[in-house]
Amino acid sequence: MRLSKSAKSILGTITGLVLLFIYAPLLLVVVNSFNADRTFGWPPKGFTLEWWGRAFESTGVREAIVTSLWVAVVSTVISLVLGTLLSLALQRYKFFGREVVNLLVILPIALPGIVTGIALNNMFTTILGVPLSMWTVIIAHATFCMVTVFNNVIARLRRTNARLEEASADLGAGLFTTFWLVTFPQLRSALLAGGLLAFALSFDEIIVTTFTIGAGDTTLPIWILQNLFRPNQAPVVNVVAVVLIVISIVPIWLAQRLSADSVGATTGRKAAKAVVPAA
Amino acid sequence: MSLQTHPGTKPDPGTLPGPAVVPRAKKNTLSAFLSRAPRIRLAGLLTAPAGWLILVYVAALAALLITALWTVDTFTGKVSTTWTLDNITQVLTDPVYQIITLRTIWIALAVTVIDMVIAIPIAFFIAKVATAHWQKILVIAVLMPLWASYLVKAYAWRNVLADGGLLEWLGAPVGVSSPGYSETAVILTLAYIWLPYMILPIHAGFEKVPDSLLEASSDLGAKPLKTMRLVMLPILVPSIIAGTIFTFSLSLGDYITAQIVGGKTQMLGTVVYANVGAANNLPFASAVSLIPIVIIMVYLFVVRRTGALNNL
């Protein structure tokens, strides 16, 4: 397809404008974290480091970060194990009910977070009578984080060759040896990318967390939401938001870099297709 | 990837080293047993994750449906297991909830359409127009900040839309006023927040369209728009639908953005939240939450054949 020069530049301009639309609000948060004016009128009236100082002294923020990290780590580990098992089962086997399981695993992300939130809240409090705690949050997070891992791993499994595993078995390797030496190395970067996304998703989750967390615990998003509407705390929220923007960029950047090797795999496949004219 | 197979290149058996009689490898018995029993192997893989999904998630959804048929004791404030259709009847017939439902659907639709309109040209530019060098940079530039925290983004828009904020300052010279904290603000903010969930699958979809196909179409005399409509669109449909599932579903259940930038705007999520928290009426909240479940289930059922569900 040959696009005219003007069509290309129109598309380029749209992309540029959208980038501006994407970055402007975030930059505004960064600017406002140094804004001396509490109401954040534009243009800013003065420069101050007061909010940054107050944010670093806040114990509430620190405790919330620790809780968030703990929840994210545990639910990522659970979802890595469950997601990988599930993707191996669905990719390598044909069985009755496979489609149902396939639909089941996407439900937690296809249904709105509020549904997941209230369904679990209702099950814990009304049906089971379990008090809400950090563990109920972890169970809830692992349920939808599993999907991220599942998606990443199954996409990789579709590209890897099951015959390698057969060859490994033919050469006398047992099932676990084959998994450890043949399957796992191929999945490693997909697992890392899936795990990072699961971690980021859990760290950021607010709706499901609100419905499943006990009264005594606070994750970082919950802390932000609680302090957002307090005029005295709003400037500190700006600082936390800036730190979050910076921190959240790291795992996403890493995940992007890791999945970049899948680009290489696709190009390899394209080359193979060019050689083999069939299909 | 360290392990790559080259289909078609078989190792030459003559060059293979090793003894003529291969000694039987020492297998651990569990591994040997499992390799003879594929069904048990499958069960081993499936039990934990499927069990989790069924025991935690499906059970919770079922319990939600049941709770919607219960009621709350007005004296004790506790859920009483008296069966009644009152909650569901009220949700369906009370004009207040009808209006809120329609407004929520409208917001979710508007967000989905806005994201589609923005995502398609951008994803197309990145995947098919930009040079290889720019592709990488643009993918990261577009997606990285958009993955930043949901709350931060909603909060960023609160800053933008505030009285005397950036938007008002920018709009004043051209006579455009800020929507303030309103329904429009909710649509704008949600479209901003969910945009990556639309760009990602569509971008992946464009990557799947082989360049040779586009060249062939152009060689056969098709103009770019015709190529787009007849060659690209059919390949892209599942990806676009996958994106709409995200944006639509995520908007349908939102209440936090509505709280932050919505002013008095009520959505289904707001009603559910209010009934779990302040009103302490879980049965009624459950009944309300059945609305988005039904809507999404119907949508998933309709698009199931397009293959969109494998693009999520």
UniProtKB/TrEMBL annotation, chain A:
Segments traversing the membrane = 12-34, 64-88, 100-120, 132-155, 190-215, 236-254
Q: What species is given as this protein's source?
A: Arthrobacter stackebrandtii
Q: Which family does it belong to?
A: Belongs to the binding-protein-dependent transport system permease family. CysTW subfamily.
Report the domain of life of the source organism.
Bacteria
Domain (ABC transmembrane type-1) spans 65-255
**Membrane topology value:** Multi-pass membrane protein
**Which Pfam families does the entry link to?**
BPD_transp_1
Q: What is this protein called?
A: Spermidine/putrescine transport system permease protein
Q: Where in the cell is it found?
A: Cell membrane
| Keywords tagged on the record | Cell membrane, Membrane, Transmembrane, Transmembrane helix, Transport
Q: Does the keyword Transport apply?
A: yes
Automatic annotation (TrEMBL), chain B:
- Spans through the membrane: 42-70, 105-125, 137-157, 185-206, 227-248, 282-302
PANTHER family found in the cross-reference section: INNER MEMBRANE ABC TRANSPORTER PERMEASE PROTEIN YDCU-RELATED, INNER MEMBRANE ABC TRANSPORTER PERMEASE PROTEIN YDCU-RELATED-RELATED
Give the UniProt subcellular location, in the record's own words: Cell membrane
Membrane topology field: Multi-pass membrane protein
Say yes or no: keyword Heme present.
no
Q: Which UniProt keywords apply?
A: Cell membrane, Membrane, Transmembrane, Transmembrane helix, Transport
- Top-level taxon in the UniProt lineage: Bacteria
Q: Which residues form the ABC transmembrane type-1 domain?
A: 101-303
Q: Which family does it belong to?
A: Belongs to the binding-protein-dependent transport system permease family. CysTW subfamily.
Q: Which Pfam families match?
A: BPD_transp_1
Q: What is its main location?
A: membrane
What name is this protein filed under? Spermidine/putrescine transport system permease protein
The answer, when asked if Lipid metabolism is one of the entry's keywords, is no
Among SUPFAM superfamilies, the record links this protein to: MetI-like
